[in-house]
Amino acid sequence: MTVILASVAFFAPVTFARVGDDGKPEVLKFRARFKRLKKSERVALNHRVAAMGMTAEVRQSIQKLIDDPATEAHQRDFWKDRLAAKTMTDAEMLNDVLVDWDLHDHQGEFVPYTHATRTELEEDLDGLEGSLVKAYFDAINKPVTAEDVEKNSEAQSVTTS
Fold first, then answer.
1. How confident is the model at residue 161 (pLDDT cuts 50, 70, 90)?
2. Which of 17, 24, 120, 128 is most exposed, with the fewest beta carbons within 10 Å of its own?
């Protein structure tokens, strides 16, 4: 049985900043819509992201955990998957998770999301990819508290009219 509690994608705020005239920052703020991953997809993504920073020493340490008879089977499987994961670029990650955005140019005109437009903007705005990746991880790693749920929930009507 499948229970759907949320949409298949979510919006998150993005802030892109770069050096402007006289050392003052130029800031672009917009919203990006990201795919809501299943647990298995999120774990696989985390493995691929972690693989990017693995040194030879880290790989050796992980292999020792895998080879250690005291390591539990589910932990051994986790570390095997982590060790086998292929690295990915920011662009590859965004290809997997970025589905849309709410972006307007300096004249207020809406900029529709397409892969070609994203590629063009990433070339023109060096660092935009990193800002999108940061926005994704900031959003999924933000703890959701009971206050957040209460604040964003509407009370159900007790009467019908």
1. very low
2. 24
For residue 157, what pLDDT is reported?
A: 45
Q: Measure the N-to-C terminal CA separation of the chain; round to a whole number of Å.
A: 34
Q: What phi-psi label fits residue 22: left (phi over 0), alpha (psi between -120 and 50 degrees) or beta?
A: left
Cα dihedral sign for 131, 137, 88, 4?
A: negative
Q: What percent of the chain has pLDDT over 90?
A: 73
- Residue 104 bridge partners (DSSP): 110
pLDDT band per the 50, 70, 90 thresholds, residue 106: confident
Residues constituting the chain: 161
Residue spans of alpha helices (H) in 34-89? 39-52, 56-67, 73-84
Domain ranges of the chain: 9-142
- What's phi and psi for 154, nearest 5 deg? -100, 140
d(CA 30, CA 118): 13
Q: Read off φ and ψ for residue 107, nearest 5 degrees.
A: -95, 5
Reduced DSSP (H G I as helix, E B as strand, rest coil) percent helix, strand, coil of the chain, to 5 = 50, 20, 35
What is the model's pLDDT at position 154?
53
